Amino acid sequence: MRVEVAPLVRGSVGDSSAAFDSLFSEVFSGTSADASASERGLALGTLLDAQAHEVVSKAVRATVDWGSRELDGAHLLWAVTQVPATAELLVSSGVRVEELAAAVRSAVEAQDSGAAGRPVLSSAARRALLGAYQQALGEGVDVVGARHLVLGLAADADSVAGRALARAIELGDRGAARSVLSVTPRLDEFGLDLTELARAGKLDPVVGRDAEIEQAIEVLGRRSKNNPVFMGDPGVGKTAIVEGLARRIVEGAVPWSLADMRVVSLDLAGMVAGAKYRGEFEQRFRDVLAEIRAHREDVLVFIDEVHSIVGAGAGEGSMDAGTMLKPALARGEVRLIGATTVEEYRRHVEKDPALERRFAPIMVGEPSVAETVVVLEGLREKYQRHHRVRIDDGALSAAAELSQRYIADRFLPDKAVDLLDQACSRVRLRRGGEVRESAVFEPTVVADDVADVVASRTGIPVADVSAQDVQRLLELEQQLRSRVVGQDAAVASVAEAVRRARAGLADPDRPIGSFLFLGPTGVGKTELARALAHALFGDAQRLLRLDMGEFQEKHTVSRLVGAPPGYVGYGEAGQLTDRVRRQPYSVVLLDEVEKAHPDVFNTLLQVLDAGRLTDSQGRLVDFRNVVVIMTSNIGADRVLDAGADAGESALVVLEELRAFFRPEFINRIDDVVVFRPLGAEQLRRIASLLLERTGAQLEAKGVRLVVGDAGLDWLVERGYQPEFGARPLRRVIARELDNRLASMVLAGTVSAGDQVSVDVVGGELALSVTSVWEPVSGGRHAAPVERAEVEGSQPVRRHSVFG
């Protein structure tokens, strides 16, 4: 709404009335009888709304009534306190309106006491009115409101009125003042004031980054290219350094050039969001940029992930944020702080030399474990207060050390802070007691709590070895021998490596153990890997098996770590690296490794020596908690020819091994174990194990399997082929026994409650079925005597013989 110049209210004294008319005309019409053309101002009479018109009218009347030489910003500020609409605005900003009005009037009357002559419009008042007009234009309106007048006064920090208003806001509610009376409303809409958060105590303390903060202050003090960019891995503390700078500014621990500056974090994603029409993002960004330019001595802009300015908001026929920033950065109109990773900076910013040369990179390295402990000590109080727990010193050390040891795909101190945070949450939830007790009871977080979190996240048992674990590890050989027969040397070698790792005596930068199993087929090489996975984890799924016969071609090497850029399959996970990333504590079995292409061995060198491997995405995969087992049939024929002499056969096989593999590959393997051929007695034990497995399957159906010595000898005799190991025996049992049992079960010849006896009749395997008790309803079966006693029924005996 436009308001025309109202009829003037005459004063009681002629001179006063004339002075009012002259000043009123100068303010509202932009003209004065004594003013030159260059000194004429805006014709505000056609630009002010009703409330703004009332404010200016009261300022003019106060100037005349107080006998002031000129209408200054102070008169406008006093008038603002007298109009209800603007007074409410100040009150909502935390300003004590009555005190401000009294202070302004006292100061003006003391300064202008007894002034003579016709009053004029001061330069400060002109700046305030012009600032109000610019504020209105910036918001896209063509009428100046009362709020714009307040903002125009606040924007002029050099005037008495601007300083008085700023002081009044500072003594009141700063948060409300910022939202209502901010001189940078568009920047505040899309930004977060870190200095305000620091004043409110909402930022975490920054520890151990004094050198980086000092370096940033030096760059910000430069005359040109004073735009520091923090570069480093994710989680090393780049954003925290900027927060530390904001805390220093609030504490006054910065040079005069940075004193009282605001550090505002700009949200580019928020600026792009909702910009539906062409040019809408550019207008938003230009508005923010204009406010930053206007207050470049007061504002530091921080853009996290600064590489995102390249391409941000770009569309067909429009410019991105980086292009719009270049001129302002080059002329020093904007001081920008950025943070990004080295990879993203190289990929996006360095490709634009015109943009890149305006930044001053500052490298932020990953802190050491000792430095991380210091960081955690600085954060301890915050987390204790949040979780209402006590954090032991040992928990801080454990968080730093265990995160560095077992979480390889993230960086300190971020991963250590996450571990500590989750450990505090877990302890509070599990040991915090009742809700009513939570206010007084504060449980203590210790190192074992942090270890439990690591174990739950990675599957790696990193806590102190319990008594149960000790017994299981000491009896590991016995568990493995129950499944692997006749290979005591291999079993002992693997068990010793596992015990070293669990006792903390193994090399922390290598896998738990790396073994090459040599020997004829079917002697237990693969079975030992399966047995180890089951013994360690109780889960055969922890065995990651790769058949190296699938990697015979040169190009198949990429299947292990992923295809390189530009090749088909790029972006897909590598078969080896991805599975180890998901299960970092496992047994990796590379079966028949001699069949792989030689380039595969080059890839494995880094795994065996350094316990790590980089995939095609550049991610580092940790193999330090893996048992690597490779099997090979190299020299198998020589083992069989050497007879029973174990020493001679081992020398023969190792000689052939050196002829096949390169020395640097063999030298990185912890132990090369030669598996012996299986004899008749060992096959008999294996046959017993296989028959126990078949018996367990029948028992689940309520059928009992009994194999006599004659039947066992008959199966072993027909399955004995030393050159093929135990596999022929497995086939004989499947063909001669399992197939017949399956037919009997399907035909109904065998049912729940029956016993199948295996014996030899006339040189052939014979199966006889005896029904020794009636099945109990519901599928439960008792022994015959127990059945008769419990149920009171008589055993029923039924005989069937199958030759």
Describe this structure in words.
The longest helix has 21 residues, at 727-747. The chain is built from 36 helices and 21 strands. The protein is elongated. The protein folds into 5 domains: 19-25 and 44-177, Clp, N-terminal domain (Double Clp-N motif, Orthogonal Bundle); 185-363, 3-Layer(aba) Sandwich (Rossmann fold), CATH 3.40.50; 369-433 and 440-458, Helicase, Ruva Protein, domain 3 (Orthogonal Bundle); 467-674, Rossmann fold, CATH 3.40.50; 680-770, Helicase, Ruva Protein, domain 3. It starts with 13 loop residues before the first helix and ends with a strand. The protein is 50% helix and 12% strand. It has 803 residues and is of the alpha/beta class. The relative contact order is 0.05. It has a 6-stranded mixed β-sheet. A 5-stranded parallel β-sheet has the order 12-13-16-11-17, with helices on both faces.
Write a brief caption for the model:
The chain contains 36 helices and 21 strands.
CATH level-two architecture of the largest domain: 3-Layer(aba) Sandwich
Helix percentage: 40-55%
Number of strands: 21
In the predicted model, the low-confidence regions spanning at least 5 consecutive residues are 1-16, 30-41, 173-181, 775-803
Structural class by secondary-structure content: alpha/beta
Percent range for β-strand residues: 5-15%
Q: Span between N and C termini?
A: 110 Å
The spatial strand order of the largest sheet comes to 3-5-6-7-4-8
CATH class of the largest domain: Alpha Beta
Overall outline: elongated
How confident overall, as mean pLDDT? Answer: 76
* Integer count of domains: 5
Radius of gyration: 42 Å
In the CATH hierarchy, the third-tier topology of the largest domain is known as: Rossmann fold
| Main beta sheet strand tally, sense and closure | 6 strands, mixed
CATH superfamily of the largest domain: P-loop containing nucleotide triphosphate hydrolases
Number of helices: 36
